[in-house]
Amino acid sequence: MLLRRAHWHAATVMTEALRPLGIELRHFAVLIVLVDRGPTVQRDLAEATGSDKAGIMRVVDDLERRGLAVRKAVPGDRRVRAVEITPQGVELFDAAHVAAEPLAERLVAELAPGEPAQLMDLLTRFAHPADGEA
Hints:
63% of the residues lie in helices and 13% in strands. The chain is built from six helices and three strands, in the order ααβααββαα. A three-stranded antiparallel β-sheet has the order 1-3-2. Helix 3 packs across helix 4 (53-65).
């Protein structure tokens, strides 16, 4: 329950940061993956963001409607589409990152020096166990 409460608090803060830009946290999460990985197939986006297939389709549809991402054919498999961020998507991502960073820093402001990095390490290990079991 503590982890759920921490998630709720962080999501609430980040949602407020993104609202003026007209996107939600779920959109920002997909943009982060696209910036980090480049063009990514939808099933991999779903896995990377913890979404289901229908949810990721809705997010990608939203991003496409706004001109922030496009679906492109994957060479060798005409059934699969990769999602790619557009230049407008990169601009919005940069603006979202600038808006969110000070709020993210405030989320960990009560922690002692070194603890934000320790928290990130612990959460990463928790979310991605070494043995591959989730």
